[in-house]
Amino acid sequence: MLTIGTHTFTSRLLLGTGKFTDLQIQNQAVEASGTEVLTFAVRRLNLDQVNEPNFLEMLDLKKYKLLPNTAGAKTAEEAIRIARLAKASGLCDMIKVEVIGDDTLLLPDPLETVKACEVLLAEGFIVLPYISDDYMLAKRLQQLGVHAIMPGASPIGSGKGILNPSALQWIIDQATVPVIVDAGIRSPKDAAYAMELGADAVLLNSAVSGATNPVQMATAMKLGVEAGRLGREAGMIPVREYAVASSPAEGMITT
Fold this sequence. Notes:
Belongs to the ThiG family. This protein has 255 residues and is of the alpha/beta class.
């Protein structure tokens, strides 16, 4: 089971809800993924526009836990304001803190992220910060009391997969809270690899919403996460420099 704060989940795949071509395909992909957690940008949700459709209208919200994020924020103050708006709207007590510091690579600003997390933790939020694959930053945020760490595999939407597995491994090895690999995932292979490294879950969006067949890709990602987790728990053989015979040498027939 995946436990984040006071919430427990069976699925280890978290799904973003942006960029789908239409709400029907989005709904079908959500169902196919088996996810229990849906994340979305508060700034892109028309909470006060009753005539504007949004993904909430298409889903049975009793089946999912919503994870609002602060996408669009460039400062701690903006992230805090967005988080408070989400909480006031009654969406959820969890918040993905996302403070982007660079418009080209869309990498998170570590200093502003820490500032935002400090305030939101003090206000009682369940806080999940999106960060780069920075080992020391992950440790500092855990010391603050965040409820999960969300390091990026590679830049958001890049599809480059896991660029630095060693950095992710270091973060995972010292983690005292769930590690959710977020951003840059392209294929089920990437999702499985993240889980093989020991991640507790994977969050993705573009890999599904941007696929030629989003519903089929959602199913593939679900299976990738499950396969990676099973492989990790099964205990994989060590990597060796040279070949090791798969058949025992003892008891062989000699001529």
